[in-house]
Amino acid sequence: xxxxxxxxxxxxxxxxxxxxxxxxxxxxxxxxxxxxxxxxxxxxxxxxxxxxxxxxxxxxxxxxxxxxxxxxxxxxxxxxxxxxxxxxxxxxxxxxxxxxxxxxxxxxxxxxxxxxxxxxxxxxxxxxxxxxxxxxxxxxxxxxxxxxxxxxxxxxxxxxxxxxxxxxxxxxxxxxxxxxxxxxxxxxxxxxxxxxxxxxxxxxxxxxxxx
Length: 211
Description:
This protein has helices at 24-38, 67-74, 77-81, 130-144, 173-179, and strands at 2-3, 11-18, 44-52, 57-64, 93-104, 110-111, 117-124, 150-158, 163-170, 197-210. It is an alpha+beta fold. It has one domain (8-210): Alpha-Beta Plaits. The strands form 2 sheets. It has an 8-stranded antiparallel β-barrel with strand order 2-4-3-10-7-9-8-5, surrounded by 4 helices. The model has no long low-confidence stretch (mean pLDDT 93).
């Protein structure tokens, strides 16, 4: 089972595909097939597939024992050749991350199928703005957790400086709609204004693989 821990003893890789709704399930099935190879690779820990409820995204929250084992997997041409049909889809947004802050009402957050509504809030920025974005995330995560329906919020920063992702777990969609009405979280002067661009989608966890 995947846990989202602040100790960063594992390397987190978040891969987000953009697809046409009619292709979403095909992409999920293609990734599942490739994971049968991925899970045998040295250093693999877990993979967790999410599909967005609007049909346009597929996200994989993956963990590896170290950045070195992930890079070895990624540079293994024989293994990558087995990705097959994955290369027929648009190139995903893929980065290596570390967790920078996490708040939870249920202890250390875990990823399981069918338990929560999930959101990936994708913040994109220039590398020089990432430190400020991280500080803003730390400042605003506690007020967000005052929402009754928010179970956990875990912010990750990409090691290349261009991304911050919030992985949030919710009781239901209605609870999320309440948060975006609050000052600083709505489209009217959000707390990240001028620092980052934000896109978020709602997901369900549809498949998990653990070593």
